[in-house]
Amino acid sequence: MSFFFALDQEKHFYYFMEWIYTFFLFHGVFLYYFILL
């Protein structure tokens, strides 16, 4: 049971890191254009 729980936690961690990556990616582009303007 704990094995599947660990796999589920790893999956959620992967999705969380992907969300953080896209979050900083879009905000980085926004700040880049904001600085250029």
From TrEMBL:
The chain crosses the membrane at residues 12-35. The keyword Transmembrane applies. Keywords: Membrane, Transmembrane, Transmembrane helix. This is Putative membrane protein. It comes from Bacteroides fragilis str. 3988T(B)14.
